[in-house]
Amino acid sequence: xxxxxxxxxxxxxxxxxxxxxxxxxxxxxxxxxxxxxxxxxxxxxxxxxxxxxxxxxxxxxxxxxxxxxxxxxxxxxxxxxxxxxxxxxxxxxxxxxxxxxxxxxxxxxxxxxxx
Amino acid sequence: xxxxxxxxxxxxxxxxxxxxxxxxxxxxxxxxxxxxxxxxxxxxxxxxxxxxxxxxxxxxxxxxxxxxxxxxxxxxxxxxxxxxxxxxxxxxxxxxxxxxxxxxxxxxxxx
Lengths: 115, 111
Hints:
The structure holds 2 protein chains of 2 kinds. Chain A is built from no helices and 11 strands. Chain A starts with a strand and ends with a strand. Chain A is mainly β. Chain A has strands at 5-7, 10-13, 19-24, 31-38, 42-50, 53-57, 64-68, 74-78, 87-94, 105-106, 110-114. The mean pLDDT of chain A is 92. In chain A, the strands form 2 sheets. In chain A, strands 2, 4, 5, 6, 9, 10 and 11 form a 7-stranded mixed beta sheet that branches. Chain A has a 4-stranded antiparallel beta sheet with strand order 1-3-8-7, with no helix packed on it. By secondary structure, chain B is mainly β. Chain B contains no helices and 12 strands. Chain B is globular and about 45 Å long. Classes of the chains: A mainly beta, B mainly beta. The interface between A and B is medium-sized, with 20 and 19 residues.
């Protein structure tokens, strides 16, 4: 158990809909990362938040957005869903302070199926 | 930019065989290197890491040595078990960049 929790575990929805994925980082971790894992694209970095502020952006679509709240949990919002958005979405967290290393601890993921 | 190249899988071995999964990288600066493992139906777990040249990371019988001269971080295990069947990802981070992953290598170990 990494200490990172994600809900829900599974999500089935229809095209055009909007969903919210939730992540709680390990206690004390300030950074949260979101990744998408699909068979054709592999593991893709989407976005990073550090202590409530966006720090880095990867291959995140404009239909997707994220935020990190004062209690450090994060939400990833996916809207106008398409079939191709079906994937595993992982959240990871890290301490991310100088001198502590940058190893990330991953949650169990949310499997999104768009029908 | 940063990139990681791993050997393509699947790698199929019999129990107790020797394992090598190759990983090479391109990075600016002096990256830290990682191996993550993903068991079926689960998230990624950090397997081992090395933060500077010639460091050897090890865990659960797996080892990898940070080779700056060949920009490599090959994963090895002397005797694999069926329970090692998983997907293995090589990754790096450099400075304040985010983790860059390889495409992953599936390992299948048969009894």
